[in-house]
């Protein structure tokens, strides 16, 4: 399948890269279908809207930046995503003009079911995480909701 993107023009993607977000992504509730594009050799992906070529999100593997990152997916979220055994977790990256100021959102990960090709941004509750953890901080633990300083 060929999709149209603003950044890369036309791209060929495979069916197993297409994810359905039944409720969209917060702030973009009308966009339900996305393609997950790996940036080979990096811990980054692009989540590209199929309906809007100018809408895409940079995602990162949170475990590559914060190896101790963990959370329990609430049962209703797991049920909505029809998760049986496989799950992929990615987090949104906010790039800043000064690269060292870029952040990763550990509070609201993108949770994907690669078996059913379903996805959802899940807002975590009662966690030490927030929306703006330093992306390039030296693997320091998250303590009391703050990056290790």
Automatic annotation (TrEMBL):
SUPFAM superfamilies, from UniProt? BH3618-like
Residues in coiled coil: none
List the Pfam families. FliW
Q: Which UniProt keywords apply?
A: Bacterial flagellum biogenesis, Cell projection, Chaperone, Cilium, Cytoplasm, Flagellum, Translation regulation
Protein's cellular compartments: Cytoplasm
The source's superkingdom equals Bacteria
Complex formation: Interacts with translational regulator CsrA and flagellin(s).
Q: What does this protein do?
A: Acts as an anti-CsrA protein, binds CsrA and prevents it from repressing translation of its target genes, one of which is flagellin. Binds to flagellin and participates in the assembly of the flagellum.
Task: Describe the family membership recorded for this protein in Swiss-Prot or TrEMBL.
Answer: Belongs to the FliW family.
Q: What is this protein called?
A: Flagellar assembly factor FliW
Native organism is Paenibacillus helianthi
What broad taxonomic lineage does this protein's source fall under? Bacteria, Bacillati, Bacillota, Bacilli, Bacillales
Gene that produces this protein: fliW
């Amino acid at each position: 399948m060929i999709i149209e993107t603003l950044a890369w023009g036309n791209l060929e993607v495979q069916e197993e890269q297409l994810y359905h977000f039944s409720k969209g992504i917060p702030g973009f509730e009308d966009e339900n279908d996305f393609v997950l594009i790996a940036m080979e050799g990096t811990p980054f992906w692009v989540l590209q809207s199929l309906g809007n070529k100018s809408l895409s999100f940079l995602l990162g593997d949170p475990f590559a930046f914060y190896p101790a990152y963990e959370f329990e997916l609430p049962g209703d979220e797991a049920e909505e995503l029809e998760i049986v055994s496989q799950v992929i977790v990615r987090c949104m990256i906010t790039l800043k003009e000064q690269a060292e100021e870029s952040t990763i959102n550990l509070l609201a990960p993108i949770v994907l079911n690669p078996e059913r090709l379903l996805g959802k941004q899940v807002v975590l509750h009662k966690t030490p995480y927030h929306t703006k953890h330093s992306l390039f901080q030296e693997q320091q633990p998250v303590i009391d909701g703050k990056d290790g300083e």
